[in-house]
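Purpose: get a first structural picture of the assembly so the mutagenesis plan has something to point at.
Setup: three entries, given in the order below. No constraints added.
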Amino acid sequence: MERRSLIGPLILIAIGALWLAHNIWPSFDASGLFRKYWPFLLIGWGVLRLVEVLALASQGKTLRRGMSGGEFFVAALVCVVGLAMTLPSHGPRIRIEGSAVEIFGEAYDYPVDLKQAVRPGTRLVIDNLNGNVRVAGGDTAEVTVTGRTTVRSLDRSSADELHSKLNIEFAEEGDRVTLRTNHERVPDNRRIATELNVVVPRSMTVETRGRSGDVDVSGLDGSVEVVSERGDVNLSRVGGAKLSLNRSGRINIADVSGNVEIASTRGSDLSVASVNGEVTVSGGFSGDMSFSKIAKPLRFSSRNSEMRVERIDGSFSMDLGDLNGEDVTGPVRIHTKSRDINLDRFTGPLDIEIERGDINLHPAAPLEQMSVRCQRSGDIQLALPEKARFTLDAVAERGTIENQAGGEFVSEMRNRESRLRSKSPGGPAVNLSTARGTITLQQR
Amino acid sequence: MMCAKHPEAPAAAFCRECGMPLCAECRIDARGTVFCQEHAPAGGPDVAGLQAAPHPMPPRVAIPGLAFLLGFIPGIGAIYNAQYAKGLVHVLVFGFLVTILSSGAASGAEPLLGILLGAFVLYMPFEAYHTARRRNLGDTVPEFASLPPALQGSNTTAVVLIALGVLLLMITMDLVSLRIILKYWPALLIALGVNMLYARLRGERAHQEEEINQ
Amino acid sequence: MSTANSNLIAAIRGPVMMIAIGTLFALDQTMGVSIARTWPGLLIVLGLLILAERSYRP
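Result (C-alpha cells, whole complex):
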C-alpha cells in the first residue's frame, strides 16, 4: 500500500493554526501574513513534496508521476487568492519594471511653489523627468509654478531625505530660463514624480523635456517644443509645435498659428486640427490619425508610407487599414503598402501608388492629372464629374474594366489583360492601373 | 524488431500507449490490449478469464457536448477532461496570440495571426469533444496525443520548451524586441528542415548498414 | 537503475515546478522583479526536467 502524501494534512494544520491564532489574539494578522508570504507557501510545499519523493525513492518504492488534480487545484487556488490579496495593495501596476519601494512604499507629497520674473522673448525650458506638466499662457510678466512632488518611500524620513536632494529651481542662462526638478540627482528616480502647473507670459516659447508624464500646453503665442519618452500630449492655441516622442499615447493638437512637426517612434493616436502652417509627421502610429483644416501642406512619412497633401479644408484620416480624405486639395501624393483609400471631393493632381487595397475616387470638377497604381492587387473605382474632359489609359493586368460612364473609348483584351483608352487625346491624363482587380468608371 | 528492455528477445507486441516494442516477458495484458510496464493501467494485469470476456460497457465519465461547449473557453475544455497541463498550454497559446495581436507588433502579419487565433478557438472545443468521447469509451487519453509523434517521443518537446523559454525571457527582459523575432522567425522553418534532412539521411545510412549486415 | 532515475525525475517534476513558481512569485513580492518578466523561466525549468528525464530513459 502506497503511503499517501503528507501535504494535505500539513496544510490543513497550518490553516487551522493560523485561524486559531487569529481567534485567540485578534491583533495577530493572519491574512496579512498570508498576503506577504504566500509565495513561500508554494516553495515550502514543493520542498516537502520533493523530500517525500526522494525518501520514497531511497526506499525503492514506486513513484507517482506528476501532481494529482487535487494538488494542482489547491496550488492554483493559492496563486489566485494570493495574487488577489496582493494586487490591490500594489495599486494598478502601470510600469512593469521598478523596485520594491515603488510598489510597496507609500506616497509622500511635497508642494511646489516658485516664481520667476522673465524678460520678454525668453525661452522657458521645463526639465521634469517624471510627472505631468501643464502650461498655460496668461497676461503676466512672470512665470508662476505650482504643483507637488510625490516621493514613494517606505517612511517619511527617507522620503524627506530624498526630497531634500531635489531642490527644484530656476536657472537662467542667456535668453533661456530652465525650470529643473532635478530628479536625476536621485539614482532610483522612478519613485519620484513632480506635477507642475505653470503660468507663463503669453508671448513665451516653451520647451518641456521628460521621460514620462502628460504634457498639456494652451494659450501661447510662442511655440512649444516637447521631448518625451512616453505620455499624452495636448496642445491648443499655440504659436507652433515641435514634438519628439518615443512611445507616445494620444496626441491632440488644435489651433496652431504656425508649423507643426511631430516625430514619434511608436505612437498610437494622433489628431491635428486647425493649423495655419505646415504639418510634418514622421514615425509609426498604430492608432487612428486624423487631420482637419490644415492650411498648408501636410507631409507624412513612416517606414512604408509617404504622403503629401497640399491643403485640407475637410478632413484626412487614416489607420492601419484605411485612408479617408474629404475636401482636400492637391497635389495629393499617397505612396503606401496596403490600405483601402477613399478620396471624396478632391481637386488638383493626384498620385497614388499602393501595393494592395481598394481605391475609391470621387474627384471634384475640373478633373486634373491623375496617376493611380495598385502594384499587387486591388479594385479602382473612379466616379467622374459631369462633362469631364480627360485622356484615359486604364490597365487591369489580370482583371476587367467596367465602363458605366459611356464616352469614346477603345477597349483591348489580350491574354488576361484588359485595357481601356480614350479614342482621341484631349484634357488631362488619367492613368489607372492594377495588377489584379477590377477598374470601374462611373458617372456621377 | 527487438524488445526495448531485452535486446536479445524478439518483440512480440507493442505498447498501445507509447508504442514501445515488448517481448513476451515484458508485455502486460490489460483491458483486452497490451501495455508496457510504465503505462499499464492500475489494477495490474487481467485475470486470465476476464481477458477473454467481452468488454463491459465502461461508465460514462464525461459528456462530450458539455466538453465541446466548455472548449470555447481557453483551457476549460481540457481541464474538464482532467488534462490540466494541456489546459495550461491552451491558455498560454491563446494568451500569446492575443498579446501579439493587440500589441500592434505583428507588423503586417495580423491577418495570419487572426486566422490562427480563429482556428485555435475552433480547435479547442473539437479537441475537448473527441477527448471526452474517447474517455467515455474507456480509453486512457494521453495529454499530448494530438501532437505529432516527432514531438512526443523525442527530446524535441524539451528543446522547444527551453528555446521558447529563453526567447520569451529575452523579450520580457527587453533584451530583444518582438518585432525582431517576428522578422527572423522563418529561420525556424529552416532549422526544422535541416533537422528533418538530418534525420532522413541518418535513417538512410542505418538502412544501408542493415542491408550490408544481411 | 536508469529507469529508476528517469522515474525519479518524472516524480520530482511537480514539486520542482511548484518551487520554481513560488520562487518567481516571491521574487515578485520582495525584490520587485515582476513575474510578468520572469515567467518564461518556468518553461526553461520544465524543459530541462523533461530533457533530464529522457536522457535517463532506456
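Chain C has one domain: 2-56.
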